[in-house]
Amino acid sequence: MLIRLTYASRARNLGPMDVKDILESSKRNNQALGVTGALCLSNGIFLQCLEGDRAVVNALYHRILLDPRHQDPAILDFDEVTHRQFSAWSMGLVSAVADNQSLFLKYASGPEFDPYQMRPVALRAFFNELIQNTRWIG
Ligand SMILES: Cc1cc2nc3c(=O)[nH]c(=O)nc-3n(C[C@H](O)[C@H](O)[C@H](O)COP(=O)(O)O)c2cc1C
């Protein structure tokens, strides 16, 4: 059964190489697991979308939770889906480069990007737009 899980967490003690390291292990592991998705980092908050088999995504999420590079995880959306949004990405990174700022803020209710406050319908629209129109890294 194909599902999509979206969660947010707060970055914690991130060193300069950490995001690169997270992305590299994500690409390697997720490809082997048949997991696709996207990872955003903006305003000190990670927002990650993971797509794949329900049991596989659950297990991966629980492994990611153990990572000391983030804290305060919250599942924001979890649903069965008919198809993948990120079929081409084992894990794409979207960072808060200037080009992406307006997209982040378009879906923010306040002056800063805060996915903890976003509703599932807004999260889906955000990721949808992200795919069409974003500067991806990695
Ligand atoms: C916000 C965040 C997102 C992550 N996403 C993934 C992911 O999608 N896939 C993954 O394998 N590891 C992810 N990681 C890294 C894992 O916590 C862990 O470091 C990694 O899977 C270890 O891989 P390795 O044993 O192959 O080195 C993430 C870490 C953080 C902090």
Name a few traits of the molecule.
BLUF_domain; 5 strands; binds flavin mononucleotide; BLUF domain-containing protein; alpha+beta; 138 residues; Alpha-Beta Plaits; Acylphosphatase-like_dom_sf; five-stranded mixed β-sheet
Describe the overall structure.
- There is one protein chain.
- By secondary structure, this protein is of the alpha+beta class.
- It contains four helices and five strands.
- A five-stranded mixed beta sheet has the order 4-1-3-2-5, sandwiched between helices.
- The protein is globular, with a radius of gyration of 14 Å.
- The site of flavin mononucleotide has 15 residues, from helix 1, strand 3 and helix 2.
What's the arrangement of secondary structure elements?
Elements: E1 2-11, H1 18-33, E2 36-42, E3 45-53, H2 54-65, E4 70-80, E5 92-95, H3 98-106, H4 120-132
Parallel strand pairs: 2-5
Antiparallel strand pairs: 1-3, 1-4, 2-3
The structure holds flavin mononucleotide.
The site of flavin mononucleotide has 15 residues, from helix 1, strand 3 and helix 2.
Determine Rg (CA atoms, Å). Answer: 14 Å
* Largest sheet, spatial ordering of strands: 4-1-3-2-5
**CATH fold-level assignment:** Alpha-Beta Plaits
Structural class by SSE content: alpha+beta
Morphology: globular
The structural domain count equals 1
- Got a strand count? 5
What's the helix-strand series? EHEEHEEHH
Molecules bound to protein: flavin mononucleotide
Provide a brief overview of the structure.
The protein is of the alpha+beta class. Helix content is 36%, strand content 30%. The protein has one domain: Alpha-Beta Plaits (2-Layer Sandwich), CATH 3.30.70.100.
